């Protein structure tokens, strides 16, 4: 997929995204490098903001952090980000126990890596993309 927008390092972009901010909690079983813990959602706006900040990419940094977090190719002033918790999506039918916590993030970001930003715009951000989470809109 291609992004029909050319951005340059230093450009300021307004963004809006709805995300499913999750973290991995250790399961308590035998430790293994490949074992991922139980996925747990962040339910507080400050936690969501920190989740989003972990995806910031300072100029010159790699597009993937050492712990495997994929960065967005931009950075922002955290005080300029607005986070609003949205109603949880759940399904009683086919996927029993499906619960998707969602949060809306709005703000202005500064482009630090145009290629990584294009990847974020093309691929989305975070989990639950099949349930309309992770699409990053810019203006």
Task: Give the SSE order as H and E letters.
Answer: EEEHEEEHE
> What are the segments in which pLDDT stays under 50 over at least 5 consecutive residues?
none
β-strand amount: 25-35%
Query: What is the total number of structural domains?
Result: 1
* Assembly status: single chain
Q: How many DSSP H or I helices?
A: 2
CATH architecture label name: 2-Layer Sandwich
Helix/sheet category: alpha+beta
Shape annotation: globular
Helix content: 10-25%
Distance between the termini: 19 Å
CATH first level: Alpha Beta
CATH topology title? Alpha-Beta Plaits
Biggest β-sheet strands, sense, barrel: 5 strands, antiparallel
> What is the CA-based Rg, rounded?
16 Å
Organism: Streptosporangium nondiastaticum
InterPro entries: CRISPR-assoc_prot_Cse3 (IPR010179)
Protein name: Type I-E CRISPR-associated protein Cas6/Cse3/CasE
Region (Disordered): 1-45
How would you characterize the overall build of this protein?
The chain is of the alpha+beta class and 139 residues long. The protein has one domain: Crispr-associated protein, domain 2 (Alpha-Beta Plaits, 2-Layer Sandwich), CATH 3.30.70.1210. 14% of the residues lie in helices and 32% in strands. The protein contains two helices and seven strands. The protein has helices at residues 45-53, 114-123; strands at residues 12-19, 22-25, 38-41, 74-75, 82-91, 98-111, 136-138. Strands 1, 4, 5, 6 and 7 form a five-stranded antiparallel β-sheet that branches. Strands 2-3 form a two-stranded antiparallel ribbon. Strand 5 (82-91) and strand 6 form a beta hairpin. The chain is globular and about 45 Å long. The model has no long low-confidence stretch (mean pLDDT 89). Residues 1-45 are annotated as: Disordered. It holds the Pfam family CRISPR_assoc. This is Type I-E CRISPR-associated protein Cas6/Cse3/CasE.
């Amino acid at each position: 997929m291609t992004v029909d927008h050319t951005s340059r390092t230093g450009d300021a972009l307004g963004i809006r995204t709805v995300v499913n901010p999750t973290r991995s909690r250790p399961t308590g079983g035998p430790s293994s490098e490949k074992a991922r813990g139980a996925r747990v959602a962040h339910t507080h706006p400050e936690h969501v903001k920190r989740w989003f900040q972990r995806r910031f990419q300072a100029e010159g940094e790699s597009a993937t952090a050492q712990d495997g977090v994929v960065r967005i190719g931009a950075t922002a002033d955290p005080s300029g980000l607005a986070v609003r918790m949205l109603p949880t999506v759940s399904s009683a039918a086919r996927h029993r126990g499906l619960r998707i916590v969602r949060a809306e993030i709005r703000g202005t970001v500064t482009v630090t890596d145009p290629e990584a930003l294009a990847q974020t715009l093309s691929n989305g951000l975070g989990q639950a993309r099949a349930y309309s989470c992770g699409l990053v809109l810019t203006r």
